Amino acid sequence: MALLEVKNLQVRVEDREILHSLSLTVNKGEVHAIMGPNGSGKSTLSHVIAGKPGYEVTAGEILFEGEDLLAMSPDERAAKGVFLAFQYPVEIPGVATMTFLRTALNAQRKARGQSEFSTPDFLKKVREVAARLNIPQEMLRRGVNVGFSGGEKKRNEILQMALFEPSLCILDEMDSGLDIDALRVAADGVNALRSPERGMVVITHYQRLLNYVVPDFVHVMSRGRVVKSGDKELALQLEASGYAQFEDAA
Amino acid sequence: MAAVQETVDRVRRIDVDQYRYGFETVIESDKAPKGLSEDTVRFISEKKNEPAWMLEWRLEAYRRWLTMAEPKWARVHYPKIDYQDLYYYSAPRPKKSVASLDEIDPEILKTYEKLGIPLREVEVLEGVVRPEAERRIAVDAVFDSVSVATTFKEELKKAGVIFMPISEAIREHPELVKKYLGTVVPTSDNFFATLNSAVFSDGSFVYVPPGVRCPMELSTYFRINERNTGQFERTLIIADKGSYVSYLEGCTAPQRDENQLHAAVVELVTLDDAEIKYSTVQNWYPGNSEGLGGIYNFVTKRGDCRGRNSKISWTQVETGSAITWKYPSCILRGDNSRGEFYSIAISNGHQQVDSGTKMLHLGKNTTSRIISKGIAAGVSQNTYRGLVTAHRKATGARNFTACDSLLIGDKCGAHTVPYIEAKNSSALFEHEATTSKISEDVLFYCVQRGLSQEEAVGLVVNGFVKDVLQQLPMEFAVEAQKLISISLEGSVG
């Protein structure tokens, strides 16, 4: 059974149709890159999968391990293993990162009928994961993303991904706002999470990121449709010739 | 808008169902005849076996009150109050003074048990192993118009601390009461304070002698039970030279369709090098979802830093009442004295809050700090009103004010009305204010990580008020955090 199956998805925001009959299948162990120009519907797709309010699905379906994902609330989807790494992670003043991580992890575990982590077990786990990602303890005591640099925010997203161990990771423009060193650190974090048990969807404008997180499949989106699919060579080809050819195709 | 809309709807549904303290205790009570006259004042004074000077003090206040008008400047609206349609005194019967808890009406004891307030010292003393953080707390319980029990009296006495109902203090320590009563909030101060001076029936009295650090937290729980009854309590706390005391008050009332008046006066006095920390968790019945019923909380609270290097700190968590009109203030008279005001005011449903503080800098090098967090939901109105002044002679006065407002939904209002006056050029006053809406992006981020919508709102709001929660004594901070979640969600309980 496929991990994620998007079938003929049609999505509206207010009166405008953003996605037209979009289909995508992601199996466990695969990394899919979705590329495309601004406004092609890449972020919309990630939001609809995660359940962000404000989008109206007018046709099609999304199955997650065979279950109807669209019938679930966003927190239920999270507990099932859907994780979205945000392009712009939000700040939550006054809520220590550590508190946030613990509240979220325990909420997911509770929803899955698992026991909550005890404080010592939780701390041990966070320290282990943070150390792997080169995240200092001091950062975990600060408010969620408050005063974090662009690189720190993205690392915090990957920290959560590592901690929650989702089966589907969607990375929305992970490379935006990162310099080359910060990008490399983030990419290493993502690569460490590649596993035969996990699928990934990497959304990006640029081929650059895909030098570090090498995809198994590349899809090009334009005007709300997947207009071409291929392997990593497709990304290199795009880098050379641009998106214009596909605009026409759409 | 869906996520925010859902929150707004949920918040709107919150009314009496979520008010956990709305039950009524059925007891017989002894009431003064309805209405207010000189006879009512005499009745109360007589019930309390007061000396003649106290009766005179009350009568003078009553006569002055007749000449005064209700203040109209606050941003609150309510129908005219008929002061002749209220009972001004109500006491549980039998009203004979009780020597031990066993003589208190068991119904009243049950009430406090339901409220989670320990009146039985034995339980506290001999209780099972408690976490170290759970310190012992002395409690004075005020039921309608009278104090029904004060715990740990003996132990406090050993330390020299006087903690008793003010009605007893008037008889047992007249010299202290005469010296300080009405010196911070004079009988002529304002309409509601003057009314209180005429008809107050009980409240707490605290005196901490020089150099003594009060060995435990002191607290008073106020409960309005009787129908059509106003509660007018009076609290007087004096911290003598070099002493320290931390005091907490909590308030609840049954849910009723009519509005009830609560007009309290609190006076604090700190002498040289003394400190009072005064915390309030106010959860009077707020009225139902249509705005029917609820307490009118018209309260005058003021502290006088009379001595050098003295300090008064107010912390308040205001979640209840239909209308709140309350400005705990500090008169910074002594040189180098310090005033602090930390406030969380939550309004939901049809609640109206007009609250803030006054920091009056009179002495040299006096400092003050104001941190106010207002949260408005439903169709409520939430106003911060503050005054910071520096007298001509208050050289080196400093104030820092930060007022933050958080809006949930689009039918509520948050307002900030700061007044700042500096009469000397060396004063340094800073004012910061922000207003924000709870953002849909933040909520979505939280739910994407597995939190329910309610947990997400609770988390964001608790983060918003964190600076103030930290000021509360630890055991109350936990309580207050829960109360905040209940006030906004109704999911916890």
Write the layout of secondary structure elements.
The complex is a heterodimer of chains A (250) and B (493).
Chain A: E1 4-13, E2 16-26, E3 31-35, H1 42-50, E4 56-64, E5 67-68, H2 74-80, E6 82-85, E7 92-96, H3 97-111, H4 119-132, H5 137-141, E8 143-144, H6 150-164, E9 168-172, H7 180-192, E10 199-204, H8 208-212, E11 217-222, E12 225-230, H9 232-241, H10 244-249
Parallel strand pairs in A: 3-10, 3-11, 6-9, 9-10
Antiparallel strand pairs in A: 1-2, 1-4, 4-5, 7-8, 11-12
Chain B: H1 2-13, E1 29-31, H2 38-47, H3 52-66, E2 90-92, H4 106-114, H5 121-126, E3 137-143, E4 146-150, H6 153-159, E5 162-165, H7 166-172, H8 174-180, H9 191-199, E6 204-208, E7 217-223, E8 234-239, E9 244-252, E10 259-262, E11 265-270, E12 275-282, E13 294-305, E14 311-318, E15 323-326, E16 329-332, E17 338-347, E18 352-361, E19 367-376, E20 381-390, E21 398-407, E22 413-422, E23 428-437, H10 440-448, H11 453-464, H12 466-469, H13 474-489
Parallel strand pairs in B: 3-7, 6-8, 7-9, 8-11, 9-12, 10-13, 11-13, 12-14, 13-15, 13-16, 14-17, 15-18, 16-18, 17-19, 18-20, 19-21, 20-22, 21-23
Antiparallel strand pairs in B: 1-2, 3-4, 5-6
Helices of chain B, by number, come to 13
Distance, first to last CA of chain A? 30 Å
Overall pLDDT level of chain A = 92
Strands ordered across the widest β-sheet of chain A: 6-9-10-3-11-12
Report on the architecture of this protein.
Chain A has 250 residues and is an alpha/beta fold. Chain A has one domain: P-loop containing nucleotide triphosphate hydrolases (Rossmann fold, 3-Layer(aba) Sandwich). Helices cover 40% and strands 28% of the residues of chain A. Chain A contains ten helices and twelve strands. In chain A, strands 6-9-10-3-11-12 form a six-stranded mixed sheet, with helices on both faces. Chain B is α/β, with parallel strands linked by helices and 493 residues long. Chain B has 13 helices and 23 strands. Chain B has helices at residues 2-13, 38-47, 52-66, 106-114, 121-126, 153-159, 166-172, 174-180, 191-199, 440-448, 453-464, 466-469, 474-489; strands spanning 29-31, 90-92, 137-143, 146-150, 162-165, 204-208, 217-223, 234-239, 244-252, 259-262, 265-270, 275-282, 294-305, 311-318, 323-326, 329-332, 338-347, 352-361, 367-376, 381-390, 398-407, 413-422, 428-437. In chain B, strands 5, 6, 8, 10, 11, 13, 15, 16, 18, 20 and 22 form an eleven-stranded mixed sheet that branches. Chain B has a ten-stranded mixed sheet with strand order 4-3-7-9-12-14-17-19-21-23. In chain B, strand 3 (137-143) and strand 4 form a beta hairpin. The longest helix of chain B has 16 residues, at 474-489. The chains are: A alpha/beta (250), B alpha/beta (493). The A-B interface holds A 50-54, 73-75, 77-79, 83-84, 86, 89-95, 100, 103-105, 107-108, 111, 143, 160, 164 and B 1-3, 439-442, 444-453, 455, 459-460, 462-467.
